[in-house]
């Protein structure tokens, strides 16, 4: 742990690579070769990608967060034993065995990074974004967390503490963002629409009701 941070330890299957990053272009090229040689079934690949983007993706985490906002008893269980509480909703599996939930409050903002590689809670957040795995993010998140938040368009009050948590193979983190004002009486399904992937990593905030109107 350090001052100002804690250091715990649209897929489209076409061939137009003009707007892809070098890494994405290499992945697409490899995918094309594997498909052409018959090693990969394109239909099965599409199902796998769709599953992680629409079913195993951030929608799962959004449901966890919404339930924690709406259900005080679940909120307490999530903070006490996140792995078990998340498992109650059926989200279990590899990369999600050892979960810890860290809660944003008026005085504290949490952000997650993996400084060694790209450990990420797949069962609740799906596929990690490219920037999460990048060396600049991994280095800057620890060195200058406020700068990283600014890069994502997030400005916090000067007095708000920022804690950065380092995911490892032994433990992965889920940020429980602050519940937006003006959502009193909302049910869990409606609350879930305000939860973004970045808000559960800590590089963003939950959407406001006005932003989603």
Summary, kept brief:
The chain has helices spanning 22-36, 42-55, 58-70, 72-80, 82-88, 122-125, 135-143, 145-151, 188-192, 197-201, 209-212, and strands at 99-103, 108-113, 161-166, 172-176.
Low-pLDDT segments, ≥5 res: 1-18
Give the strand line-up of the largest sheet: 1-4
User: What is CATH's topology name of the largest domain?
Assistant: Nitrile Hydratase, Chain A
Biggest beta sheet summary = 2 strands, parallel
- Tally the beta strands: 4
Q: Structural class of the helices, strands and pairings?
A: mainly alpha
Overall, the morphology is globular
Radius of gyration over alpha carbons?
A: 18 Å
Q: Helicity, in percent? A: 40-55%
Order of helices and strands: HHHHHEEHHHEEHHH
CATH homology group of the largest domain: Nitrile hydratase alpha /Thiocyanate hydrolase gamma
Number of helices: 11
Strand % is 5-15%
Please tell me the total number of domains: 2
CATH class category name of the largest domain: Alpha Beta
- Give average pLDDT, whole number: 85
- First and last CA, distance: 40 Å
